[in-house]
């Protein structure tokens, strides 16, 4: 299956600093397998999908092909996330705590990927890791924003997982 890696930053990213298919690693020093750059048309389509389908409804507005504006809503979203974490935690029992297919797997997924997406986020900051993250790191970034703040999209990559 295929999904998308989005490079996101608080400052505009010049084209020469966009992530490319050989820029990122999978966390062990090796490049991400089956990663490729997308066409400008596909990039635009995936950014629109990011705002309309991946991110919480109404939390962001697409300003142009490279810019999304935060509209607020993180406090409500955090309440929903905490409730989902609590629900998943109730699935962990003495009998399944050491079984990966038990409740711990669902709890781990909720903690690291609260947006329940296959998309990955490369939060581009100076000195940042070259490993893209699941949605928990992106939402931590969002929690530090004020209503009206903008985020900028750099490279957009297709990857197979």
Radius of gyration: 17 Å
Give the helix proportion (percent range): 25-40%
Task: Give the quaternary arrangement of the chains.
Answer: single chain
Poorly predicted segments: none
Q: Which structural category fits the helices and strands?
A: alpha+beta
Overall pLDDT score = 89
* SS summary, helix count: 4
Beta-strand proportion: 15-25%
What's the story with the biggest beta sheet?
6 strands, mixed
Secondary-structure element string: EEHEEHHEHE
Number of distinct beta strands: 6
User: What is the rounded distance between the termini?
Assistant: 6 Å
SSE layout:
Elements: E1 2-9, E2 35-37, H1 40-54, E3 60-64, E4 67-70, H2 74-89, H3 103-112, E5 120-123, H4 135-143, E6 150-160
Structure description:
This protein is α+β, with helices and mostly antiparallel strands. Helix content is 31%, strand content 22%. It has four helices and six strands, in the order ββαββααβαβ. Strands 1, 2, 3, 4, 5 and 6 form a six-stranded mixed sheet that branches. A hairpin with a 2-residue loop joins strand 3 (60-64) and strand 4 (67-70). The longest helix is centred in the middle third of the chain and has 16 residues, at 74-89.
